[in-house]
Amino acid sequence: MPETQALIRLNKYIAQCGIASRRGADELVFAGKVTVNGTVADSPGIKIDPGADSVVVDGKPAVLPGKGADVTILLHKPVETVTTASDPQGRKTVLDLLPKKYKDLRPFPVGRLDFFSEGLLLLTTDGDLCYRLTHPKFHLPKVYRVTVRGTVPDAAVAVMRKGMALKDGDKLAPAKVQVNKPVAGTQQFEITLIQGINRQIRRMCEELDMTILRLMRVSQGPISLGNLKRGQCRELSDGEVLALKKAVKLA
């Protein structure tokens, strides 16, 4: 086999190591946090030999997991926890919630869930899976359970179902909305999103004059939060991982 066939792009290698998505790897390289054989990498597209080159990311060696060693974890993220591997402000991160056996594997959070939101969050050491799950081309439906003060106006439901344009110009696709009965001065609805607009539900509710009391993600593609309690996590079964990979067309 020609030697060049063993070479891969640096950003792909970093993703395969489970350190970041490919876009995240690009950012690490451009920030000067990646070295190859002791030299700071100047491009995420340079080719490296995984079997011969030494890659260090943010001071730590980037090592490919062993065959079959990838792990994907479902976490019920609580509020006031940041969805990053580390936080310069010293706030609790989702990695802080993991048992040591998982934390030592350095799983990477798949996407984001904002500071005051809770619910389903996936973390994985599978770089290719992380890349697919965070790429706009492969966005999976995500279901959120939203509790608001008072009641949900019929007009607001109609707007969300039809699709809306936010004041800053972002155009939102129609969303599936299911409203539950009011309970003790509050009302809950479930909304299914496919787009990846930042803080989309909070921005929608703000412009539709609804005050969110609780926002929880309950499913992503074929994976559901189920009865997992806040702060708890579990490893996905082989069947769940297979279903997730099929959903993003990953062989």
Strand content: 25-35%
Separation of the first and last Cα atoms: 23 Å
Helix run count? 7
* Average pLDDT reading: 90
Total discrete domains: 3
Q: What summary fits the major beta sheet?
A: 9 strands, mixed
- Overall geometry comes to elongated
Rg over C-alpha atoms, rounded to the nearest angstrom: 20 Å
What's the architecture of the largest domain in CATH terms? 2-Layer Sandwich
Helix/strand/pairing class, anyone?
A: alpha+beta
Any overview of this molecule?
- By secondary structure, the protein is an alpha+beta fold.
- The protein has three domains: 3-61, RNA-binding S4 domain (Structural Genomics Hypothetical 15.5 Kd Protein In mrcA-pckA Intergenic Region, Chain A, Roll), CATH 3.10.290.10; 72-138 and 223-247, Pseudouridine synthase I, catalytic domain, N-terminal subdomain (Alpha-Beta Plaits, 2-Layer Sandwich), CATH 3.30.70.580; 142-220, 2-Layer Sandwich (Alpha-Beta Plaits), CATH 3.30.70.
- 22% of the residues lie in helices and 27% in strands.
- It contains seven helices and 17 strands.
- The chain has helices spanning 10-16, 22-30, 100-103, 127-134, 154-162, 200-207, 238-247, and strands at residues 8-9, 34-36, 39-40, 47-48, 55-57, 60-61, 72-77, 108-109, 118-124, 142-149, 164-165, 171-172, 176-179, 186-193, 212-220, 223-224, 233-235.
- The strands form four sheets. Strands 7, 8, 9, 10, 13, 14, 15, 16 and 17 form a nine-stranded mixed β-sheet that branches. Strands 3-2-5-6 form a four-stranded antiparallel β-sheet.
- Strand 5 (55-57) and strand 6 form a beta hairpin.
- Helix 1 packs across helix 2 (22-30).
- The radius of gyration is 20 Å and the shape is elongated.
- It starts with 7 loop residues before the first strand and ends with a helix.
